[in-house]
Design a protein that fits this description.
By secondary structure, the protein is α+β, with helices and mostly antiparallel strands. The chain is built from six helices and eleven strands. It folds into two domains: about 110 residues, 6-pyruvoyl tetrahydropterin synthase/QueD (Tetrahydropterin Synthase, Chain A); about 130 residues, 6-pyruvoyl tetrahydropterin synthase/QueD (Tetrahydropterin Synthase, Chain A). A hairpin with a 2-residue loop joins strand 5 and strand 6.
Amino acid sequence: MPKITLSRTVRMMISARKSGMRDGPNTYAGTPVCDGVGAYYEFHATFSGTPAEDTGFVFSIYDVDKAIRSEFTEPLSSALAEGRNAAEMLPELHTILSKSMGMPAETLKWTLGPHHHIQIDGNDMNHVTLIRHYTFSSSHRLFNKKFDDAKNRELFGKCSHPSGHGHNYRLDAHVRVAARSDDAPGIADIDRIVMEHVIDKFDHRNLNIDIEWFQESNPTLENITLTCHQILEPQIRKIDAELSHVEVWETDRTSCRYPATT
């Protein structure tokens, strides 16, 4: 049988007061639930393996649901009350899940907010990847000055209109940091770098005119993505972290990632 990868997302609400949580029937929206103030989390787990001959499952999704909801709730509640570092805690949660399932999770991603995630790879338990989303609004025109207007229209369509056009871009930065270190860079460190070196420079700008990186290169989504990586990689390295990759979204249907997936 071929080896395949299966994923499962589990949603839950966590209260710092354990007695404030109770199981609910709406597993799509998330359970346990709490009526008081709490935190909403999503966990996305992946496992790889060959489907079992008798069931056709790599694993039972019900077992993953049960493992995360029964084993994560108490430590998460305590962590919320104590203000623990999520990046430090994620390897522990990965170990708990893998032990409960009887097989190692390939990855475990913890969504702490709509635009903030952390992920751990089962092959490297000493590091986690912080994933942060940013947005900037910019205008650009796609054209090559070697060509006349007719050729530019042929190549770039309406994107070559002399007046240009705009996008609300989203930049996703994936930054790998040490999981268990008091000195590891955190969210604020990464935000400062991305805001200072990319967002503040690109936002509400005409990329063709205002950004030196695009004086000689066409500001396509591909070149914007490469430029963001070239700008951020050395800055992230200065804080003893690693820029795993960046992904830039031009629309909700079109994105570009660098380095490319292998």
